[in-house]
Write a structure and sequence with these properties.
Elements (H helix, E strand, L loop, with lengths): L6 H18 L7 E2 L2 E2 L3 H11 L18 H11 L26 H12 L5 E4 L15 E5 L2 E11 L7 E7 L10 E7 L5 E6 L9 E11 L3 E2 L5 H37 L1 E2 L2 E2 L4 H29 L5 H26 L10 H11 L6 H16 L2
Helix pairs in contact: 1-3, 3-5, 3-6, 5-6, 5-7, 5-8, 6-7, 7-8, 7-9
Length: 385
C-alpha cells in the first residue's frame, strides 16, 4: 500500500505549484470579474498554460487531448484552487471545458457538438436544476413527449451557469415521470436559439457566478439529438456528476492549504497584548484542525481518484470527497478569516472570496444532506444486518 504520488505526478504537482505561486497569485485580484476573465487576461494565461504543456489536459487522447487520469486531474484541481485568479466556475485557461457527456455521443452528434467544443468554436451548458427539483432529479418537471421524429419539451430550468453565451445545452428531461430517476430521465442536445427557448433572467449570487433561468415552451428537438436511448439520462449524467464531486474534493484541499498558508503566516506576524497570535492556544488549535482536515481530505480524494482510474465505481467515495471537502474548506476559510480579524473581511486578501465560494459549493452538485442520505442507504445495506 503506497500513499505517495508517483514520481511523474509529484513533478506535475511541483510545476503547477510554481506556476500558481509565480504567475497567478501575484495577479489574483486583477484577473476576473466573477465568472468571467477581464479583457486580455484569459488569452495571456492560456499562452502560459500551453507553454506549461497542459493544454486540453482533461480531454481524452482519442479526441486530441492529454487524457490525464482522475488522479492527475485531482492534483491539478487541487493546486489551481490555491488561487482566486481563476474563476471558481466558468472559464478555464487549459482549453475549452468539455462535459464528459459529450464523449458518449454517436459519430454524427460528435461532429456537430463535441468537436466544435474541443476546437473552441462552440460552448455548452448543462440544464438540470429546476425551481421545484434541484438536488432531486426524480422530481423533474421538464417533460419531453415524443411526436414522430421530434420530442416536444416544456419546462423551467434555473441556476444554469454559462447559458447566456452557450451555443447549445445538454437538457435533462422527464420522458417517464413515474419512473423518475430510475429510467425516466432523458438528455437532449438543444441549440440555445431554438424557437420556444426563453432566457428569462440572470440571477445575482453571493458568488461571482450569474446563472440563468430558462423557459422551454413547446420546444421541438429532433430524435437525432437525444443522448443514448430514452431513459438513459441518469446514466449519461453519472460520469459528469462523479467527476464533478471528485473535483469538489480536490478543490477543497487546495483552498484549505492556501488558508493554512495565509493564517499561519499572519499568526507569526501579528501581535496582540504583547504576544504573537501564533502563541495563542486558540489560534494553534484552529491551525491544527485545518492541517488535520487537509491530510484527511487528500487521502480521501487521492484514493477515490486512483480507484476511478482502475475502473472502479466510486460514487459513494465521490459523495464523501464532495461533502467533506466542501464543508472542511469552508471551515478553513472561516477560521482563516477569524485569525485575520478585520483584515480577513477586506478584498485586499482572497479570504473573503474563498469564504463565499466554498459556502456555495456546499449546495451545488449535491447538497451535503442529500449526499449523506444516499450514503446512509449504503451504510444500512453494508452494516445493518
Amino acid at each position: 500500500m503506497d500513499f505517495d504520488l508517483p514520481e511523474e505526478l509529484q513533478m506535475l504537482k511541483d510545476n503547477l505549484r510554481r506556476f500558481v505561486d509565480t504567475e497567478l497569485i501575484p495577479i489574483e485580484r486583477e484577473t476576473n470579474d466573477g465568472s468571467d476573465f477581464l479583457p486580455g487576461v484569459q488569452e495571456n494565461l492560456e499562452d502560459k498554460a500551453r507553454a506549461l504543456g497542459l493544454w486540453l489536459f482533461d480531454v481524452p487522447e482519442e479526441f486530441g487531448g492529454m487524457g490525464l487520469g482522475h488522479l492527475s486531474k485531482a492534483v491539478m484541481f487541487e493546486e489551481m484552487a490555491r488561487t482566486i485568479a481563476l474563476p471558481s466556475r466558468g472559464a478555464s485557461i487549459f482549453g475549452p471545458r468539455v462535459s464528459p457527456i459529450l464523449y458518449s455521443l454517436n459519430d454524427e452528434q460528435k461532429e456537430r457538438f463535441l468537436y466544435p467544443v474541443i476546437r473552441g468554436e462552440k460552448t455548452s451548458c448543462f440544464l438540470q436544476t429546476e425551481p421545484e427539483g434541484g438536488g432531486d432529479p426524480g422530481r423533474m418537471r421538464t417533460t419531453a413527449v415524443r411526436d414522430g421524429d421530434h420530442y416536444v419539451v416544456n419546462g423551467h430550468k434555473r441556476f444554469i451557469t454559462g447559458a447566456g453565451a452557450a451555443d447549445f445545452g445538454q437538457v435533462v428531461t422527464a420522458t417517464d415521470r413515474e419512473k423518475g430517476s430510475r429510467g425516466g430521465l432523458t438528455v437532449f442536445l438543444v441549440d440555445m436559439d431554438t424557437p420556444g427557448i426563453t432566457k428569462l433572467r440572470q440571477q445575482d449570487m453571493m458568488i461571482g457566478d450569474r446563472p440563468w433561468e430558462i423557459l422551454f415552451e413547446d420546444v421541438k428537438i429532433p430524435v437525432s439529438q437525444r443522448v443514448g436511448e430514452e431513459g438513459d439520462g441518469m446514466k449519461a449524467a453519472q460520469s459528469w456528476l462523479t467527476e464533478g464531486r471528485l473535483r469538489h474534493g480536490a478543490r477543497g484541499a487546495g483552498v484549505i492549504e492556501r488558508c493554512l498558508e495565509l493564517a499561519a503566516s499572519y499568526a507569526n506576524q501579528r501581535s496582540t497584548f504583547g504576544a504573537k497570535l501564533a502563541t495563542r492556544q486558540t489560534v494553534q488549535n484552529m491551525l491544527v484542525d485545518m492541517y488535520q482536515n487537509l491530510h484527511q481530505l487528500r487521502l480521501m480524494v487521492y484514493n477515490a481518484a486512483w480507484r476511478a482510474d482502475q475502473g472502479q465505481d466510486v460514487r459513494k467515495e465521490s459523495y464523501m470527497c464532495k461533502y467533506f471537502g466542501d464543508e472542511m474548506s469552508f471551515s478553513a476559510a472561516d477560521r482563516c478569516m477569524q485569525i485575520h480579524g478585520g483584515m480577513g473581511l477586506t478584498k485586499d486578501l482572497p479570504i473573503e472570496q474563498f469564504f463565499r465560494d466554498q459556502r456555495s459549493m456546499i449546495i451545488t452538485e449535491g447538497p451535503t444532506e442529500i449526499l449523506k442520505m444516499a450514503l446512509a442507504r449504503q451504510v444500512l445495506r453494508e452494516y445493518g444486518e
